[in-house]
Structures are given as C-alpha cells and as structure tokens.
TrEMBL record:
One of its GO terms (cellular component) is cytoplasm. It comes from Spelaeicoccus albus. GO terms for biological process: removal of superoxide radicals. This is Thioredoxin reductase. Its EC number is 1.8.1.9. One of its GO terms (molecular function) is thioredoxin-disulfide reductase (NADPH) activity. Pfam families: Pyr_redox_2. Belongs to the class-II pyridine nucleotide-disulfide oxidoreductase family. Its cofactor is FAD. Keywords: Disulfide bond, FAD, Flavoprotein, NADP, Oxidoreductase, Redox-active center.
Length: 316
C-alpha cells in the first residue's frame, strides 16, 4: 500500500476521493490522460457498495454475470495499470474553494491538488429503532454477502422493498431456514424480475404494511416485534438475524458547507456535466444520482468527471 506524498509543495493535477465504479473509472481515464491521479479509496469503503454485492448480471460485457467484488478488483487493477496511485485511507477534511485544493487524510497527510473529483458514494440507511447500533454485528447486518454465512439454518428478516432487499433475501436463502421480507407498503418497489425471483423462492415469505418496531434479545438478536402500519397491531416473530436494506444516503458531510447540496440531499452539478459550483471540483456516481444508482451509470459518470477535469486543467 502506497502513501500520499507528504510534501505540501507537491501539487497533484487530480485527486479522486472515493472508489467504486465512479472513482475507479475516473482513475482509469485520468491516468490514461497522463494526469497521474491519486485515488483516496477509503480505509474500509474501498470499492463501494459493489463490494457487498453478489452476482452482477446487468453490467455490460459479462454475459454470465460477475461478482461485485471481482468487478471492483478488475477496475482497481485497470486504473493502477495506467498509472493511478491508490491509497486506502479516508479524507477527514477538505478545503475546496481555493485554486489549489487541500485535503487532509486520516493519517495526517496533506494532499494538494488543482482538481478534485468527488466519488464518495452513499452510506447504508438505518431504521432508527432502539439498540440498532448496539446489536450491529450481533444479529444485525447491512450486508448479506458479508454475514449471510453466519446464519445457517436460522430464521432471518430482511427489511425493505426494493431490488437490494430482494437480492439480499434471495441470497440469504442459500443459508437460512426461512427469510421474511418486511415492507412498510402494500406492494414492492423492486423491479418485476427481482420481485418475481423472490416470490418464487419457497423459503421467502412477506409481511406487507409492516415495520420492525423493537429488537428482542440482550446481547444478540433473538426476536423482533413487527408493527402493522395499517391496523396498528403488533406481533412477535422469532428471528436471529435482521438484515436492513432500506436504501442509502449520499456522503456529502465533508463538503456540504462548501458546495451546493440539493433539497434531496445529493450534491448539485451543472446540467449533464460533473461540474460543481466551485471551479476545479467535480463529482461522479451515487453522490449526485438519486435516480439510477447503477454500476454502469456510476462508471459513465466517472468518465464524464475525468474528461471534465482534463478539460479544466487544459484551460488553466
């Protein structure tokens, strides 16, 4: 693992904050343009949400599918092949409004750059119920591919109604005795193919118009209290695993005070470009996209940000 240049005198042409399809694609394009990009990939989030995904069936070029972590590893290797420098650290603060941007990493390094591409992605959303954080890792998880193996022959609940929830539930049937999908509405938000896949699985059952209101168990999950949002009735169900798949929020905290954030919480860019309101600062991927949120659109967005940064550097 390499370290960022420690000298404050070094000014990079491009620094990319975050990885995943957007960050790594921006790394590929800026590296091929001989801009010697530095990718600050994150200490635990490198690769983004695809690191927590099983088989990806809709990424072009893989007719038989590809595992999410394998796809991210190939993207990382491709960026490095063309000269991108990748470090596994976090940015703790950034000053973006000057002509030369300054970023501080978790290990205390100062990194200066003429352009910054923000590909910080999004973070898993929580339910906001008591003891959710305390029992994280003790029966509560946001990652089926990470933790599903530990729930062999157990009864599991998945909360959510979108594609991610259907994918999590279907994957968990490889290990669990039963999987119950709890969704607060009366119909799923998932695409038809994902919904049909879940419905056709004998191990999966559904609780609609429902939400988890209480987690039972002292030191680990031993059961759940489910509230019917339509009737107000409560029921207790046996479960030793709770997997939460209710979406995610864009990671904008580091720069929300310097850049324009849209009312929906996403970072604002100009039209179809990747340009933020600050010259030399560009953005790509899920941090600017509340609509599509696909690996392929994130990769395309990373390409756009790289080209915009290249054009900006040429203009100065």
């Amino acid at each position: 693992m390499s370290e960022p240049a420690s000298s404050a005198e070094v000014i990079r042409d491009v620094v990319i904050v975050g990885s995943g399809p957007a960050g790594y694609t921006a790394g590929v394009y800026t590296a091929r343009a001989n801009l010697n990009p530095l990718v600050i990939a994150g200490s635990v989030t490198a690769g983004g949400e695809l690191m927590n995904t099983t088989e990806v069936e809709n990424y072009p070029g893989f007719p038989t599918g590809v595992m999410g972590p394998d796809l991210m590893e190939d993207m990382r290797a491709q960026a490095e092949k063309f000269g991108a420098e990748i470090v596994y650290d976090d940015v703790t603060s950034m000053e973006l409004t000057d002509d030369v941007k300054t970023l501080t990493t978790g290990n205390g390094q100062l990194v200066r750059a003429r352009t910054v591409i923000l590909a910080t992605g999004s973070a898993y959303r929580k339910l906001g119920i008591p003891r959710e954080d305390a029992l994280s890792g003790f029966g509560i998880s946001w990652c089926a591919t990470c933790d599903g193996f530990f729930f062999k022959d157990q009864d599991i609940v998945v909360v959510g109604g979108g594609d991610s929830a259907m994918e999590e539930a279907t994957f968990l049937t490889k290990f669990a005795a039963t999987v119950t999908i709890v969704h607060r509405r009366d119909e799923l938000r998932a695409s038809q193919i994902m919904a049909d896949r879940a419905r056709s699985n004998d191990k999966i059952k559904f609780l609609f118009d429902s939400e988890v209101s209480e987690i039972l168990g002292e030191n680990k999950v031993e059961g759940l209290v489910i509230n019917n949002t339509r009737t107000g009735e409560h029921q207790q169900i046996d479960a030793t695993g709770l997997f939460i798949a209710v979406g995610s929020d864009p990671r904008v905290d580091l720069f929300a005070d310097q850049l324009t954030i849209r009312p929906d919480g996403y970072l604002a860019v100009e039209g179809r470009s990747s340009r933020t309101g600050v010259p030399g600062v560009f953005a790509a991927g899920d941090v600017i996209d509340p609509v599509y949120r696909q690996a392929v659109t994130a990769a395309g967005s990373g390409c756009s940000a790289a080209l915009d940064a290249e054009h900006y550097l040429a203009s100065i």
